[in-house]
């Protein structure tokens, strides 16, 4: 299968590598300038021997390459337009999280009263959510597969193995805890609600996958946005949830999650053979598994090929993820005012 990447200098280079290692042919990528494309092209060649074409206009790339899969790794505000175009040239789409977000410079949340019911009410957020729904519906109409990358959800099987070893069957989920720290977050998303917008999709994708068909309970909603972190506590489905996303440039980042108080640390590193893997640790017990991004890409390719399975986060889960992220943010209390423009 032929794959192209829109935006390969950041996380996109890892997608390019994983698609290549999973047996696809990465024929091209796009960037914003000739200089950045040259630099990224060299990086991809060093990573996995990339020999494809480069473009500074993604539309030209899609018109010419007509790929089986378009992998979208550009800034959030361009995801929808690029997805729509990719569907028009009949490609399947694998898009980075969040599935979409409006340009942060175009609206403010601070004076907007949230709803008591589980719905997005801010007009600009609502508009983005509606557009996302229609793009996902377009994928369905065209029989193209939309998948979103939020790789933590791929850790479910490894987590369940270690959980069940210590606790028996993971039948009832009464609580879910998620902590994700990151050293660097791209541009506009590195403070206040930007941190939530950027990282919450990882927590939400796990929650959605763990408790289908859950819903947000609006009577238990508490979200605190600070400059370097956001903590949200709420009820979803059968569980009480605590999700903390945080910027931590100073010390080793912590990544932890688990259900019913059984928490594991998550980290990625090369194993004894030098293969980059994911590890879950609970006390002295460590489970090694395939890197979560690699697993997510593998599952997406399998879903495109066979149709017998679905991506870890399909279009409908991506819309739900976005909607929950927006609703929770609309209910946030800010330390300082939310930073979006008046
Ligand atoms: N799943 C994860 O763990 C994870 C981690 C990081 C980021 N992400 C997500 O991945 C996406 C990209 O983030 P990033 O950190 O990789 O960002 P980045 O480092 O800023 O890279 C963005 C890429 O998109 C290209 N680009 C910029 N504006 C564009 C436009 N208008 N149209 C087409 N391409 C454009 C850039 O081209 P140049 O090469 O010319 O600069 C660059 O290659 C975001 O949605 C982010 O939330 C996910």
Q: From the alpha carbons, calculate the radius of gyration and give it in angstroms.
A: 20 Å
Looking at this structure, what is the CATH superfamily of the largest domain? Dihydrodipicolinate Reductase, domain 2
Class by alpha and beta content: alpha/beta
Low-confidence parts, pLDDT < 50 over ≥5 residues?
Answer: none
What's the helix count? Answer: 9
Main CATH class of the largest domain: Alpha Beta
CATH architecture of the largest domain: 2-Layer Sandwich
Distance between the termini: 46 Å
How much of the sequence lies in strands comes to 25-35%
The distinct ligands, each listed once, are:
NADP nicotinamide-adenine-dinucleotide phosphate
Q: Report on the biggest sheet.
A: 9 strands, mixed
Largest beta sheet: strand ordering: 14-13-12-11-7-10-9-8-15
User: Which H/E pattern describes the elements?
Assistant: EHEHEHEHEHEHEHEEEEEEEHHE
> Rough shape?
globular
Pfam family, one: GFO_IDH_MocA
InterPro entries: Gfo/Idh/MocA-like_OxRdtase_N, Gfo/Idh/MocA_oxidrdct_glycsds, NAD(P)-bd_dom_sf
GO molecular function, one term: oxidoreductase activity
Keywords: Oxidoreductase
Write the layout of secondary structure elements.
Layout: E1 2-6, H1 12-21, E2 25-30, H2 34-48, E3 53-55, H3 58-65, E4 69-72, H4 79-88, E5 92-96, H5 123-141, E6 146-149, H6 156-167, E7 175-182, H7 193-210, E8 216-225, E9 229-236, E10 239-247, E11 255-259, E12 262-270, E13 276-282, E14 285-290, H8 292-306, H9 315-330, E15 332-334
Parallel strand pairs: 1-2, 1-4, 2-3, 4-5, 5-6, 7-10, 8-15
Antiparallel strand pairs: 7-11, 8-9, 9-10, 11-12, 12-13, 13-14
Helix pairs in contact: 1-2, 1-8, 4-5, 5-9, 7-9
This protein binds NADP nicotinamide-adenine-dinucleotide phosphate.
